[in-house]
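ASSEMBLY PREDICTION REQUEST
Request ID: AP-0331
Submitted by: J.K., bench scientist
Number of chains: two
Total residues: 538
Priority: normal
Notes: Please return the full assembly, not individual chains.
Input sequences:
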Amino acid sequence: MISNLAVAIMNGIVWGLIMALIALGLNMIFGLLHIINMAHGALYMLGAVVAWYVIELTGNFWIGLMVAPLCVGFIGLIIERGLIRTIEDKPIITIICTFGVMLAVQQLVLMIFGGSPRRISPPIAYRFPLFDLQYPAMRIMIALISIALMIGLWIFLRKTKYGLWMRAVVQDREMAVGLGIPVNKVYMWTFVLGSALAAFSGVLAAPIVSVEFMMGREVLIMAFIIVIVGGMGNLEGSVIAAIMISLIQGVGALFVPPSIATVFALAFMIIVLLIRPQGLFGE
Amino acid sequence: MKPVPEKNEIILELKEVNKSFGGLLAVNRVNLSVNKGELRALIGPNGAGKTTLLNLVNGTLPVSGGHIFFKGKEITNLSPHRISHIGIARTLQITSLFSGLTVYENIWTAVQSRKKFFNPFIRALKWQDVKEKTESMLDLTGFKDKAHLICSELSYGDQRILEMGIALSTEPDLLLLDEPTAGLNSQESMALVKKMRSMLSGQTIILVEHDMGVVMELADNISVLHYGAIIAEGAPDVIKENEEVKKVYLGSEHA
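STATUS: Completed
Returned structure:
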């Protein structure tokens, strides 16, 4: 029992960190562009699919991890410039349009990649003993990479000019315009960055789950729950909420079937929203 | 009083400017010229059109008629963004700063707005001249010791000073101040005025202000608005003695 619990907690943390990356992108896009990006899960899936092709071609997981975010970031750039730019400030329209993008991406992947799930085998096969079970070292690696990406993001936001611009635009868009911050470019790069983060998490999740065209669907819902629980616009809150919710789900799955464990996460969200409608760390 | 600049170079000129909202004429054929280096106060009873006039100057509202010239070029109906780039900065009646950022980051953001070059990967806090200018602005505004506080932690009076510092950091040719002492008690007001005198010397300013003490203390010249029209203009001493101004501004019982 103790070893099952330890594995559940480890899995909860690893999966929570992956979810945090997705939720961070979603939350940044929401905080800056004020759009609810329904295509975010599809970009996560696309990251995993692109990585699958790159790994097939090169046989190297790490190249896939580098290339997929670049490709998906570029696709994010096209989506932002081509679509979102033209409809910003119309919340309902942005939801419908990004939903359309989600369907288009899913169907394109279905056409090209096919409907059957495929696996990306972990580049690190080593397992270490955890009580009387074995735990894959790859998952620890995934967690470390996720943490490194988050630290990188934090430094980017705190210490670079562009990061400061992003935080300024979140605070007050009109004043930022007045101070000559190129708000349009900030929007564009935020969307690209959010898309790339979704792709990163897609690649990191790929050795744990299987790669298929619908893999973004549940992840999108969970990411929304995380953003709401953590507080809209609060990035640190998203990270903490992601880990909490994944732990609740992971540990819950020890006692009930995994699909029912999602109920725990939803119940957690309901309780949080009853007590703090603005989310755990929202203002 | 501040020394009057030797050349009376006109920096802002309004010619027959009108603004109507439906049937209401909020600004009525206003002619106004402001010299470089001058602090011009706009006073008048509530609803006289002072804030509307500022909104016309910085492009927030389109004019209904007339022309506005800035540094010799017509700026009538340019977008606020363009006008800000040409060199008119403004503080608002409501607080205008990034309340979740630090004092340093606020000033830095304002200072860098004048920089044209563009490199997203430059480390913000190592960008040499922006950094130097930011630090000198922190000195000037007296925020050196509070540079790393989040703005929402500052007192309300300090926030108003910082706002002015932000506006000044963009190195505007003309600064529009809309009721900088709004919401301050008289003690805070006087502290702000003292600060303004040291911070703003030599700066061309249009000041909209209710507090007569503040206006008399700071203004080089005063324009009095009443129902959207300028009814008197002149040095503070002259305006103080103007009978018509007393009548509209102080109420008829003082006339």
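REVIEWER COMMENTS: Residues 128-141 of chain B form the longest helix (14 residues).
SIGN-OFF: pending second reviewer
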